[in-house]
């Protein structure tokens, strides 16, 4: 049941060398742009730029392929759903209707709809390489330090660090509990009735949760014994100082942000209308 | 000592809680039989944590847990729903003082209170906020996202009603009454 | 005049959920630079005593305190847990909570970070301390990838960075293999020599701790201090036997032979122990007692054939292991931390699937069988009790498997109560599991499998954290089951347990089978001992020093005799 998940990939690349703070800020800027704009020109530029960044990060496509496949699958389903529920959304947005095929009634295919759905898809393509890169090039230990640096209280930053630290542990516990329950005679096969399945799931979830509650107790004791939370501030072993390249990168991203907003909003509409 | 809003225990609860939320949300979803609709047990857990550790912990567990889950398994956080997980955790947490689960009794009255609150809160979150954000951020068709919200929200309500109530009952029982344990022969 | 650093005066403590105090009227003074060992039965209050010293009682574990406790002259009531944490460094008993950082370096630096130490200073300090525990090459390793012994060193480094006065270790040896355990004790000794800190160790494995000198041993029983003397004095007294704590084996053997142990024989360590006066008695006794009865062979019940397995692709954890086990055998699986012993047990139970190789049960291929199918014949007690417990109440936990199998209620009750009695848990049958000590929890998991009466039982570290009496009771019950034909496989780091109960031992090293022989032969082969991090028994050395020409036979006879004596306890 080795389920793959994204995690830090240690490499030497310009992207890896940026501090976590820089990457965090840039990622947030990037997501904001991608969320806001529907301007096709900007989306295409951003998409090309993110491909470029992906290439210089030296992360191999193979290493993240499982996520990409999943996302492609999801996008396909989502596109179908959008079409099923609102086949004329594009017409509504762009205000014109160029019919491509007549299928009868509301399911007639229009160029506007295709263009709109292409934009939806493009939006994901823009943000996904950036998000994946952020996850695989940021050392999780440095991540908490970065959160703290951009103003999140160190207590909450540390909670995030703990979450990252304990995800593999909890996953292992989950599996072990499930196995030991089966060894006592619980049947986990998928063919069972729903009520039975729920009952079986509870027999794993309940112990997992209770043991996690015990863990909270033990860990907070251990942290307390080693003086967590005694000062207003705390330093971070893994924090890294800013370099010139960090400053340049952040300025670059702020510029991209401003340009995108200007181009998107100067005609008072998030959508770019070629029609 | 407790001069800070967040005690160490709360911080650890947020961290571990988020990790558990991630794992449950990924591995402990029970298919209903209808494709693409699942009972997501992580919300039952979120409700428990919110009631035990209060609104801030509840909110942050939802927020951090959901963002991390999306990020490490699906490549990118789906922000609108992440935010709603946070809001749901926070709002359910508001009843934690009233229920006072640490006292060790979770009677019918509290059970009803808990469920009324969770249903209202989740209705606001999944039926209203999540789809509206989807329309706003991603400009998706309204009827699609509202239906998605309805289905997911409805399932989450059932999950919390069953699993959340069960967990709270168990938790209350595990807070053994003070001075009650003696060795028997 | 030595300066007292820990002073308990008429101190009592009662957990809020308990009806009676867990610690009663404790009077104890520990002086600067001393090394003190605390021993006592499981559940006697040792960890609780430790929690009082580091401040978890009463800051984290609530309850009622009476009497006084001073740490380096200051009353703890006037301190908070942070100032206490500057004075006392603790290594906790529960392995789940010890490591907080993602990597070794961060975990060591944790206390420094909290002190808002500048980064460069932190780098220096971490480098210095990690060198002290010989972990300087692992600073960037993730904690998940360390072996048990390496983890132990990291936890030590983590408390060393803070210049604390007192180091407190709660069962530092549990789960360590014998050689690593020896190393850990030497490390603690060396650090104490270099830094002159006060050291308090809580541990069941008395003989292993005494490998390095200890100033005093405190015996705790049922929440009271019942003795406080030097190791030599204590070993010469009958106190250990009275509270059923295992004495060092060479002492026990000398006592059986009728020698009177006195403190001027320096019984605390085998190398200092003066055997000259009791040589004759030992030799006489050796002739008098009988060895164990040899077992007759029966049919093969379980067979592993060329098993390969890896958790991640590309890294093999188990390579080409084959062995077969006969019906009604008792077998030990031993080896270094991280050798793959627990992994083997998981493969046998179907928790993991081998990448190649077959597993047979009574000649039938069960490699493709589900966990549930196998579980009706093979029961497993896992290493970490937290991973097996799924109910809140002790009774429910033990009854769970029977309920799932549809056993009638009246019978369930009978069987559960009987098993709880065997495991020494009957007085607690109506308690929540959360109020148990670590060793008691482990016993709950053993009970929950014993009650099912499977044909083959696999126990992963059954005696870790158990006191001698419970250990004996559980093991004797297993022997009884074994006589009725149940096959028992034990994974253990306890060499004496292996010698005592399992005639045969399978040694695993680096995922391969290194040896498969009688337990006594395994421990007589120094190359196996070295490669698999085992340790020879002190009885062997005693025999040599007493001039007995067949030391192996001496060990055998001791064990047979000792078992007989202890059977009378029941
Ligand atoms: N958190 C708790 N709440 C209530 N009772 C507790 C708690 N922790 C321990 N006890 C009780 O206090 C007694 C002593 O426990 P403690 O953990 O100090 O034992 P111990 O000597 O360290 O045992 P072991 O060798 O098994 O670790 C036990 O009987 C246990 O039931
Ligand atoms: N779930 C897991 N995923 C990945 N690696 C694992 C897992 N469990 C164990 N390992 C690795 O497999 C190796 C063998 O582990 P195993 O637990 O079988 O050792 P062991 O012989 O039982 O050691 P110990 O005496 O310390 O209990 C170790 O290197 C360990 O880090
Ligand atoms: Mg203990
Ligand atoms: Mg093991």
UniProtKB/TrEMBL annotation, chain A:
The chain crosses the membrane at residues 15-34, 40-57, 64-85, 121-138, 245-265. Its main location: membrane. Pfam families: CbiQ. Keywords: Membrane, Transmembrane, Transmembrane helix. It is found in: Membrane. Signal peptide: none annotated. It is a multi-pass membrane protein. InterPro entries: ABC/ECF_trnsptr_transmembrane (IPR003339). It comes from the Bacteria. This is Energy-coupling factor transport system permease protein. It comes from Peribacillus huizhouensis.
From TrEMBL, chain B:
The chain crosses the membrane at residues 6-29, 41-66, 78-95, 116-139, 145-171. It is found in: Cell membrane. It is a multi-pass membrane protein. InterPro entries: ECF_substrate-spec-like, UPF0397. It comes from the Bacteria. Keywords: Cell membrane, Membrane, Transmembrane, Transmembrane helix. Pfam families: ECF-ribofla_trS (PF07155). Its main location: membrane. Gene3D superfamilies: 1.10.1760.20. Belongs to the UPF0397 family. PANTHER family: UPF0397 PROTEIN BC_2624-RELATED (PTHR37815), UPF0397 PROTEIN SPR0429 (PTHR37815:SF3). This is UPF0397 protein HNP81_001738. It comes from Peribacillus huizhouensis. The lineage of its organism: Bacteria, Bacillati, Bacillota, Bacilli, Bacillales.
UniProtKB/TrEMBL annotation, chain C:
Residues 6-247, 302-535 form the ABC transporter domain. Keywords: ATP-binding, Cell membrane, Hydrolase, Membrane, Nucleotide-binding, Repeat, Translocase, Transport. SUPFAM superfamilies: P-loop containing nucleoside triphosphate hydrolases. It is found in: Cell membrane. Its main location: membrane. Its EC number is 3.6.3.-. Gene3D superfamilies: P-loop containing nucleotide triphosphate hydrolases. The keyword Flavoprotein does not apply. It is an enzyme of class 3 (hydrolase). It is a peripheral membrane protein. GO terms for molecular function: ATP binding; hydrolase activity. Belongs to the ABC transporter superfamily. PANTHER family: ABC TRANSPORTER ATP-BINDING PROTEIN BC_2655-RELATED, HEAVY METAL TRANSPORTER. Probably part of an ABC transporter complex. Responsible for energy coupling to the transport system. This is Energy-coupling factor transport system ATP-binding protein.
